[in-house]
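Fold it.
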Amino acid sequence: KRGATEVEKRLLDGSLSTAHPVSMFAGLADAVSASMGGTSGVLLELMFRKMSSTLTKCESIGIPELCQAFQEGVGAIQLYGGATVGSRTMLDALIPAAAALIDTKEIKEASNKAKW
C-alpha cells in the first residue's frame, strides 16, 4: 500500500512524469524505492529500472517495445530474487502475464494469465 500511495502522491503533485515511458518507469522506481521496505520494494524498483533502461535503447516506443520492457523487468525480478513460477511469489503472476503480453500484445490476456 505504501508504494501505491507514494506513486499516487507523486502523480498528483506532478513529481512523477508520465510524458515519456523511460522517465515514467524511472520515476516509478524512485517512488517504490523511497516508500517500500523489504524484498518486494527492492524487486519492484529493479523491475521498473530495467523497464526504463530497456526502453532507452529503443528508436521508438510502441506496444511491442513496452511488452518487451515488461518482460525484461520481470526477468530482473527473477534474476535478482532467485524465484520462478511455482515459488509462491509475485512471479507466479508476473511471468505468465509477461509471456501473454509478448504473445498477444493484449493487456486483457496478460491480466487473465496473471490470475492464480
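Residues 22 and 53 are 7 Å apart (CA to CA).
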